[in-house]
From TrEMBL:
Species per Swiss-Prot/TrEMBL record: Paenibacillus pini JCM 16418
The keyword Cytoplasm is assigned to this record: no
SUPFAM superfamilies, A to Z: Acyl-CoA N-acyltransferases (Nat)
UniProt keyword annotation of Manganese present: no
Keywords: Acyltransferase, Transferase
Record-given protein name: Acetyltransferase
Length: 165
């Protein structure tokens, strides 16, 4: 699907977005993209883990189509300059530049909050995602070999990072 760049809005998530975000997680996080599919047990479960404002959502013509989520990887002050992120774009909107715009917004959002590094994890069985992250400036920082057994094969867990300094 194509869209006009002017119709895309990126904003912090709100309480009213919870059901869409839960549904998107169920669509996007599957055996190809995650160690196991992600299904929230309830709206309350989702909101306990994903507070409003902990994601930036992409909206095209009033329709939510993706998000990038942020969380602190640890509670240690010495790790306070890092955000761990996850990103998802609805399949109907993939390959339209929305993911790239979400990543640009994520970098700005993190910098405004004093974060100097973004990190993420991606499965080696998802070469499209690995390529996308590289295009966004992420580099491989580590690899947990044969970390998961998915679909009758062992899959590496690739750790990637982006430094904003």
């Amino acid at each position: 699907m194509s869209y006009n760049q002017q119709t895309l809005t990126i904003r912090p998530s709100e309480m009213k977005d919870a059901q869409f975000l839960m549904d998107l997680d169920a669509i996007v996080w599957n055996d190809l993209t995650a160690p196991e599919p992600l299904h929230w047990t309830s709206r309350e479960d989702f909101l306990q883990h994903c507070l409003p404002g902990s994601q930036l959502v992409a909206v095209v013509d009033g329709e939510l189509c993706g998000y990038v989520g942020f969380r602190s990887p640890t509670s240690m002050l010495s790790n306070g300059h890092v955000y761990e992120i996850s990103i998802a774009v609805h399949p109907d909107f993939q390959h339209a530049g929305i993911g790239m715009r979400l990543m640009e917004a994520a970098k700005s959002w993190a910098l405004e909050r004093g974060r100097l590094k973004l990190r993420l994890r991606v499965l080696s069985s998802n070469p499209g995602a690995v390529s996308f992250y590289r295009k966004c400036g992420f580099v491989e920082e580590g690899r947990l070999q044969n970390e998961f057994y998915i679909g009758d094969q062992y899959v590496d867990d690739i750790l990637m990072g982006y430094l904003m300094m």
